[in-house]
Amino acid sequence: MRFVEIIGGWINRYFSNEEAVYLIVVLLAGFGLLFIFGTALAPVLTGLVLAFLLQGLVARLERWHLPRSLAVYLTFLFFIGGFAALLLFIFPLVWRQLAAFVNALPDVIQRLQEAARGLPEAFPNVIDDAQVDAWLQTLGTELASFGRAVLEQSVTQLPSVVGWLIYLILVPISVFFFLKDGDRLTRWFLGLLPKNRPLLDQVGSEMNVQIANYIRGKFIEILIVGAASYLAFALLGLNYAALMALLVGLSVLVPFVGAAVVTIPVALVALIQWGWTIDTVYLLVAYGGIQAVDGNVIVPLLFSEAVDLHPIAIIVAVLAFGGLWGFWGVFFAIPLATLIKAVMNAWPAYPLNPEPASTDQETV
Predict the structure, then answer these.
(1) Where do the H-state alpha helices sit in 192-332?
(2) Euclidean distance between CA atoms 136 and 67, whole angstroms
(3) Phi, psi of 350 (to 5 degrees)
(4) How far is CA 186 from CA 112, 182, 319, in A?
(5) Residue 182 class from Cβ within 10 Å (0-12 exposed, 13-18 middle, 19+ buried)?
(6) At 255, is the secondary structure helix, strand, or coil?
(7) Where would a tag sit more exposed on the chain, N or C end, judged by fewer CB atoms within 10 A?
(8) How many helical (H) and strand (E) elements, i.e. helices and strands, does the chain have?
């Protein structure tokens, strides 16, 4: 009986406000919709993300006294030009380097075997020939499996030309209509909610700004880090410079963990290409400098007003939402964690035992 009273008191404290119920229904409906139909709605969701990214350009053009319709059309043309450049130049370059990397795996295994054969002589009291043979066998099996998996994945994706065409058609269309009719769609959605909704408006307004700033900031960060990495890798003559730069750029999507993980393939390619030489040292110093500038300059400038979350909270959000929605879960992990924090801060709560108001006159 005591347990029932505790649960009832907790419900009365946090859910006695009608708006709190509306908010929890909206959140559950949104998460449920994404969980069930997220894959099917992926082209539209991609268009929504890109529209958030481009909305800043529309707003800037409007501040230059251009009509909104003209600003939308110019922004959309800019997007189509960038999208075409991505498909015609960047993707083919990365694909060629990925194919070359997979084809070079046998040579990579051979070089690693040659390097590993010298370990028993260098460390006779720590490593013996049997351990090296076991390591090389495992490494060869894993690299061969990786190569087959990449090629099989590539082959299995070829029949899905219709799926790619759907993306290529629906994503630009979604971007255009989100830019053109975003205000109308927002008014329609708000019309489904109660008219008196200060809590929903507070959380919605904060998250609209947070998500827009996060998407634009993250895109700029990926662009800067990826471009700087490509220039450094290309100038130093690193093999697969475009592929490695793409990995480094995308690594910023996963705070803390991404930079550490992507260091492994970058260092591995450098070691296989140059060995323990001064060129490898130069590359690692340049890579470390890019990561230091990103963490200490770019991130504070782009996200100074974004999120005040503990690193553990960020890692938990990345793991949880990434497990639910894959890439998009990782991408939106920080905004979603910010949403949860904003809801917790704004959630109406009432004391279980409110103290009576004090009076200046004593009760007789």
Answers:
(1) 198-236, 241-251, 257-274, 278-293, 299-302, 311-331
(2) 65
(3) -120, 140
(4) 57, 6, 31
(5) middle
(6) coil
(7) C
(8) 16, 0
User: How many angstroms separate the CA atoms of 145 and 140, rounded?
Assistant: 8
Task: Kindly list the domain boundaries of the chain, sorted by start residue.
Answer: 41-192, 194-348
Q: Tens of pLDDT along 14-26?
A: 555 666 677 777 7
CB 173 within 8 A of CB 65: no
Q: Each residue of 95-116: pLDDT tens digit?
A: 888 888 777 777 766 776 776 6
State the pLDDT at residue 97: 85
Q: pTM above the 0.85 mark?
A: no
DSSP tag of 118: T
Tokens of 349: 């709560």
Q: Residues 6 or more apart from 254 whose CB is under 8 A from it?
A: 261, 318, 330
CA distance 313 to 81: 38
* Secondary element (H or E) of residue 85: helix 68-85
Q: How far apart are CA 126 and CA 57, in angstroms?
A: 60
**What DSSP string runs through 224-235?**
HHHHHHHHHHHH
